[in-house]
Amino acid sequence: MSAQVCVLASSSRGNATAISFDTSGRFILVDAGLTPRGVRSALSQAQAVGSFHTLRAIFLTHLDRDHWSPAWTRQLNRAPVPVVVRAEHAEMALRLGVPKHCLRAVRGRFALGETAQAEAVEVPHDDVGSTAFRFDCESGSIGHATDLGAVEDCLIDAFNGLDLLSIESNYDLALQQASSRPWFLKRRIMGGRGHLSNDESAAAVARLAAGGTIRQLVLLHLSIECNRPAIAVEAMTAAVPALAATMVVSKPFEPSAVLRVRRMQENAATVPADLAALASSPLR
To answer: What is the rounded CA–CA span in Å between residue 41 and residue 221?
Structure first.
């Protein structure tokens, strides 16, 4: 049994990642910036993780339009599943159309049914922040962090001992500075509460990979205007050459390969001791 990860799309036009934790065919979405139809199409194209009707929950990093599509409101009223947000985002989620009966506001670490544990970590992004998520299951540990202006020590601590890391590598500094974007937008992006540059992302991955457990790396949310996959890969390879062979660069409009997550034997100690007793969770 292995967990599986598939980035269905990742850009300022829409973000969604499908993750399954076992062989049941059920999966979660991290972000729902694609419409329900878009998610259904991407799952089919990738032959990924599960079928649309086996969606078990949606985890939202934040509520920007490229991470939450209002088209989900109708879908969730017709076929409800939990929508998980950090507690600080709950009121905004309701205003932007997350049905109240679906909303689950969380803090810190919590159980996800009987198959996994999750942890919500606040990261800096604009005025309301974003949320990075860590998922631990029997076959491995997965970290997902996007739309963060800086990598703080709390995220490094929370992401210790990962097997697979998905992290934003949004822009190349030179391309950003030379772009035709207005200065206020450049300042927002580069000001410590916007997005991570390739170099900032590479520095964070180097810190996280120092423990030697990370086996797979996914680069998220590359700017279409101010980045290039080859530039992002070059910066990351220079910082963490050991991960070059397993590095995956997400694409704006098509899904990634399905990545299978397996825990390193040396990393077995990071499995939460109570993974066998998660039935108390309201998220099924």
So the answer is: 20
